[in-house]
Amino acid sequence: MHLPSFTAPIDLDVTTLFVVATCITALLGLFLLSTWAQERVRALAWWGTAYLIGGFSIAVWSVEPAISPPLPVGTANALVFVACGMIWNAARVFHGRSVLWGSMLAGAILWLFACLFPEFAQWAAARVMLSSIIVAAYTFLTSAELWRERRKTLLRRWPAIFVPMLHGAVFLFPIPLASLLPSDGGIVSLATGWIAVFILEATLYLVGTAFIVLVLAKERSVRVLRDAASTDDLTGLLNRRGFFAAAHQLVQRQAKRGEPVSVLMLDLDQFKSINDRFGHPLGDEVLRAFAATAACNLRASDVVARFGGEEFVAMLPGNLAEATAAADRVRREFKLVGEVIAGRQVGATVSIGAASGSFDAVELIAAADSALYRAKSNGRDRVEGVDQGFPGPKASPLPVGGKPSGEMIWHVNRHEGREVVPVVLTR
């Protein structure tokens, strides 16, 4: 028994590909909209709507000769460009940026304006080049929007950047071919030879992009839940759990570099009296005001958290001198902010204890807490610090409970305008 041999080349029917591409695009659009209805990620609604418009444009494209007029010439292409612009703006929405309505519609408007000229409508090479440029421009803009989020988590998601760039590069390919072909007959030959390839590439791009979008949306949802579990509802800062997770990473990084790390313990002065005099709602406003002040006056690399009640904690890369300077900056700013809160004369202040010299977060917190107690005892609204002696660039993180051989106590009284004065105590 002999199996028949197939030597004829595979012939892809363009009409069939159009139907398949339309169905796939519409189904992906409905699927993204369904996911948006469940996850409530606004960008998914944009992506889903863009896919539906793109699927509709393919359907219009296949019957455009029969419906133009009354539809303007080039309507199908204009709808494609609107969909591409929406995908670009969906990437902007996903990362919290505004929608650029004019730029989103610019490609479609440019195309429809060009189609008003009979010379352009009859010049096939110009139509190929302009449509390729518009599609490629929007896909490159989509990739650029994703690249602007240059965080580690995004850099690991390279397909979200690479796939749009590849799609844009593919759509630039017909431009040199169209410019070299001498006549409309050459363009027709190009279309019949390559249109199937472009339909397949566009379909694969849409499927791949939908998959990437869903992965990004899922990651966003997981991150939101994780942040909610590690964030204090009242102030928006990290809670105790979130602080220790972030502090652990910071300590490891500083230990690996052989650079010091410091901890600040910050406690609002006479907070119970504020609650008794003005009520708990205003006390909550004081806490929020202090959290905003601390976040604005500390660096992005610093880990700031609400430790409980009116007590806050911060871990900073750097030595005690840098930590006390940052602490005093927070203290002075909050003294101004705390004078009047919610229209009431409150006069809220903060006392701060600082500690440096160990790679053990628990040990640093205990030392900073002792320094905070001294700040309270010495009159409040001040900074007190303790340097336990930096372990050095070769040291590894100390175990919990490990103790250095000596301490250097830094008495800091910025309230009185005096400088940091170190006093060495040997033990």
Q: How many DSSP helices?
A: 15
* Helix proportion range: 55-70%
Structural domains: how many? 2
Can you tell me the overall shape?
A: elongated
User: What is the number of strand segments?
Assistant: 9
Coarse structural class: alpha+beta
Largest sheet: 7 strands, mixed
- Which sequence of strands runs across the widest sheet? 2-3-1-6-7-8-9
Q: SSE order, as H and E?
A: HHHHHHHHHHHEHHEEHEEEHEEE
Radius of gyration: 32 Å
Q: How would you describe this structure to a colleague?
A:
With 427 residues, the protein is an alpha+beta fold. The protein contains 15 helices and 9 strands. The strands form 2 sheets. The protein has a 7-stranded mixed sheet, sandwiched between helices. Strands 4-5 form a two-stranded antiparallel sheet. The chain starts with 13 loop residues before the first helix and ends with a strand. 36% of the residues are buried.
